Amino acid sequence: MRIALIGGKGGVGSSLVEAWRAEHELTALDRSEAPQPGVRDVVGEADDPESLTAALEGAEAVVHLAAHLPHGSEAEQLPGTAAAIGVNVGSVLLAMRLARRLGVRSFVHISSLDVFAAYGTAPIPAGAEPDATALYGLTKLLAEQALRRAVEGPAPTAEEGPLTVTSLRLAFPTTAEAWPRWITPLREEQAEPVLHTLEDGTPIGSLHPEDLATAVMGALRRERGGPYEAIAVTAAAHSIADDSATRLLGWRPRHVLEA
Fold first, then answer.
1. Sheet holding 25-30: strands in order across?
2. Closest Cα to residue 8, out of 22, 37, 23?
3. Model confidence over 25-40: pLDDT tens digits?
4. The whole model's pTM is what?
C-alpha cells in the first residue's frame, strides 16, 4: 500500500515506519529534515497546502499524526490555543479534503482518549459522550467533529470524492523499551516512563508499538461501520467500556498487563 504519514517522524509515526517500511511504500511529511531510511521524505508543515499535496500525491491511504502537544499547565497552554487549533483541527480537515481531491481511499486521524475529561482517572462507561474542555482533548474532539460532518455530509466541491475516515482514540502509546509504562513525546517534561493508574490504583498498561501498528493498519483497511468512525484503542479494556476496535477492526491488543 502507498501510505502518506503526516507528522511521520514523531514517536507514533516512527513506530509505524518501523513496522511498515519493509512491506509498504511510505511518504513522511514532517518539519524535521532528519532522513528516515526507506521512506520518501517531504519536509514541510502539516498545515501547508503545497507540502501536503506533495506528500499525498499518489497515496492510497493517509495517516494524520501531526499534533500541537501541550506544554505545562492548562493556564500556561492558553497563549497557544490558536496554534493548537490550527494544527490539531485545521491541518486535519485540510489534509482530509486534499486527500479526497487526490483520490485517496482511506484516511486515519490519530486522536486520543483525552476527548473524555475523566479518562485515566475513572473508567469511562458505555455510551459516554466525549466531554473534554482541556485544550489538547478539546482540539482532538473538534477535529473528530469536523471530520464526521465533512464525511457524512455532501462534499463541499465536486472534486472531492468518497473517503473512509477513522479517528483512532489512542491511550498512552509508548515504546517497546518502556512498555507497559508510558513515555511522553515531551521528553523534557518526563525523566522516566510512568505507569498510569485509575483513582482506585488499578494500572493502565500503555499501548505497545506493535499493537499500535496493527490497529492503524486495521483502520486503513476498515470495511465495517460507516464512512466515519471514532474508535477507542487501548491495552486496558477496564479503562473504557468500548468494543469498537474489536467490532470494526477485528483488533485486540496482544501486549496487556496481567490482571
1. 39-43, 25-30, 2-6, 61-64, 106-112, 164-170, 228-233
2. 37
3. 999 999 999 888 889 9
4. 0.95
